[in-house]
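Format notes (please read before filing issues)

Several people have asked whether sequences and structure tokens are stored in separate files. They are not. Every record keeps both together, in the order shown below: the sequence lines, then the token lines. Line labels are part of the format and must not be stripped during preprocessing.
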Amino acid sequence: MQPGPREIVTPFRPIPLDVPEGMKPNEFFNSTENLNDLVHNNGLLLNPENLLLYRKALGHSNEFDTSIIYNTSQCILNPLGRPVRRTQVPEDVRHVWNRMNRIIIEYMLEQYPDPERHLLLAGEASLDATWPLTSPGVPSIRMLHNHFIVFPMDELRSAKPADPKNPNLTDGGQHSLFQAYMRDVYRAFFDAALDLEILKPASDEDARIDLTGYPQGLPSWEIQGGAAALGDVRFWKEYDAVLKGFIDFYRTFFSQVSSRNAPILPDVYFPEQVEAVLLFDDAFMGTAKKVRERCIKDPAYANAIRWQPAFKQLIYRNDDGKLIVTISQNSIGNAITELLGVVVSRVPDAAAYERQEPGLIERLLEVRRRLIEADLGEAISTPYWD
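Then the structure lines:
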């Protein structure tokens, strides 16, 4: 079978919500009122740390698909003041969130033990207003959430090939500015900045899913010890360190795009490595020059720049059953699944969704039961479950 991205069709039940006059759909769907609907119709569990586990009404997969959102909509009314990445989450909340992540990933690995039969992934993406401020709905949600998704491999094998030129397939090789021009310095910076014991650099071949050929060209790390390592707090600190390294690279690069020979930013996580590796690298500085000059001449290009860190970071299982961590520059409109070459085409089909719904809910309620047993929240009742 020829490797390549796949486009999978996922039916959903249309959401019966009326968008108020004068609002665009994405503005309303990211509003506090819609988040209330998310709690009451799709909420599974809530805890005092404001971490909400919920069913994805517009899901990626009806085999297993759930998310945790750090729902600060009721306690931080200023959208620009809400945490949007792991590094901004208070320590006590991040501790609880990491424990929730571990339990859900362990359940996925237990329920779906064979990598030939199921593709597993868990991760998060930035949701802040890093795209042009003139875009509709932009600073609307600004709340961090993550995904836990399982795809049956048989469905992926039988799915039609996706267009490899789809701009949403941000693979780090064809579309990412980092990988296209600065791949060597990008990886050298990670190697210099990160002090890792559990995460071990993985080759492109180890990281790649054979069926889709993705991810492509991204820095990746194997989780030594597999699922057991998720119970070690050191792993989660290293997982955060990967994100911190990415943020330093991204912010430093675009500071040089914005202002020629800009001084080192005052609040980077790895200042010595930023100075020694990035600001003294010809490819890094030369690429910033190219982007800066294009921004000056091309207003459409300049308007599309995401000046603040925009990322996707995930844990997934490779073909050999190893757990892999990777991180990528984000783009507007794409889904976290596309990092692994899976394009999801959602179609409204209530009857098809309802045939799959009982099994999906059964699995979600079992995850909820385990989280409650671990004192990680209280159950939410909805019209679809007690």
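For reference, the curators noted about this record: The chain has a mean pLDDT of 89. DSSP finds eleven helices and 13 strands in the chain.
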